[in-house]
Each structure stands twice: as structure tokens, then as C-alpha cells.
Amino acid sequence: MSSTPSPADTSHTVHSPGGWRSDLLTGRPGVLLTGPAGAPDAVVSRVGRSGAGTLVVIDGTTGSGKTDLAGRVRQLLAHQGRETYLLPTDLLVPGWQTLAEGVTRTAELLAALARGGEGRAPTWDWERMAPGDELRLPALADGVLVVEGCGALAAAAQDLAPLTVVRVLVEAPQELRYTRIAARDSYTWDIEAWQAQEERVRLAWEQTPAWWPQVLVRHGQGPASQTGELS
Question: What ranges does the record give for the region Disordered, renumbered to this chain (predicted)?
């Protein structure tokens, strides 16, 4: 599968068929707006010690920089002595056309962790394009689980108390994202078809302000700043 990029589109703002735009966040009280350089500190500043565990949920369109941010956040937390785990959502997506199923699997795993139990989910082996082993995550206690990937915010669009949830959206211009994808992937795949799935699963969170991101990472943005007075 292949797709032809459109380098002329360099919009920084996420738009969706439902009319939600990421610039709605820039006036929302308590939201941190930051560039990639300041993003790890901005995210970690929201991670407390609730005693029940924390989820750091990092979402964004393909090629936006989610994986890089997740790694830097984990490194910063490790320097603070925090126990961290990583859950790439694509590990639970069973193939190119089934992002929604991966979101469902991730959501069920997060709900189990919120209940204080072990999180389990079937995985997908992308090399063999076949089901993989069962994923098992221990109860979080005071640990931090970084959930990174397309559909992560949709999976976290639920009441996950008593866990602390830090929701993050990463944005980058289309030209930059497509350049990153070309450098990253040695194979061809239908980028536009995947992005259409991203738009559909985003409906799970974008229509409910309670599930909106608390940190917006925007390419070209300067140091972290509050977009409104803390409520």
C-alpha cells in the first residue's frame, strides 16, 4: 500500500470531521502548551504521587513525535526514581485496518488497572502479521504507565479513578510527519487510510472536554506556558 504525501499542507492544528480543533485547548484553563524541547518537563510536572498509580497518555497523528516524547518522559521519571512501564498501543492493534479494536483492547486493560488489578490483553506480532503473546502488566501501585500511540486518548476516555491520568496530545505539520515516516519505515503503507482511522477513534474523546489533553505539544512552540488560569 502506498500514499502520496501533500507537502503543501503544514497546518499545526488538528481538525476533525466533528469540528473539534486543537486550538480550542489554547484558551482552556490549566492546559500547558509547549514545544517538543520543553515537553518532557511539562508532562512530568503533571505526574503526582497519588499512591494509586499514574497513567501518562500520549496521542497524536502518525509521525508527530509520540514515541520520542514517551522515551524522554520515561527517562526523566527514572531519574526521579519512579518505576515506569511503557505500553505502545500499536502492540494491541491487530493489523492495519483495525485501530478501533486496538483502542478497545487498550481501554479494557486500563480499566483493569484502575480497578487495582493486573492488566491483560492479546498482542499483535507485526513481523508475522499474526496474533502474538498475551500482554500482562502488574497493578500499578505507585508506578507510572506511559501509554503511547495512535488512539491512546480514545482508550483513556473513561473514568479511571483512582489513577491519576495525564493526557497529552502531540502535533506536527504534515510535511514533517511524512518526512519522519519515510525515514522511519522501510516499507510502504497507506498513510491516508490509517489517518482516516485516527480521525474516527478520536471521536471517543474530542466531544467530551473531561477527556481533552492537559498538555498540548506543538511543533515550533516555545517554552511551556499556561493557556489559562488554573481552575
Answer: 1-22
Average pLDDT, the chain: 83
Find the CATH number of the domain harbouring 93: 3.40.50.300
Q: Which residues does 196 contact at the CB level (< 8 Å), separation at least 6? A: none
Long-range contact set of residues 75-80: C-beta below 8 Å, sequence gap at least 24: 75/40, 76/40, 76/41, 76/44, 77/44, 77/47, 77/144, 80/44
Q: What range defines the domain where residue 103 resides?
A: 22-226
Residue 13 pLDDT > 80 = no
Please report the pLDDT score of residue 16 as a whole number: 46
Specify if 16 maps to a domain.
no
75 sits in which H/E element:
helix 66-79
- Which residues lie below 8 Å from residue 132, measured CB to CB, with a gap of 6+? 91, 122, 123, 124, 125
Quick check: is 197 in a domain? yes
pLDDT of residue 17: 40
List the one residue out of 168, 62, 161, 71 whose CA is nearest residue 110. 161
17 falls within a domain: no
Does the residue 101 lie in any domain? yes
Task: Give first-to-last CA distance, the chain, whole Å.
Answer: 47
Question: At 136, which helix (H) or strand (E)?
Answer: strand 130-137
What is the domain count for the chain? Answer: 1
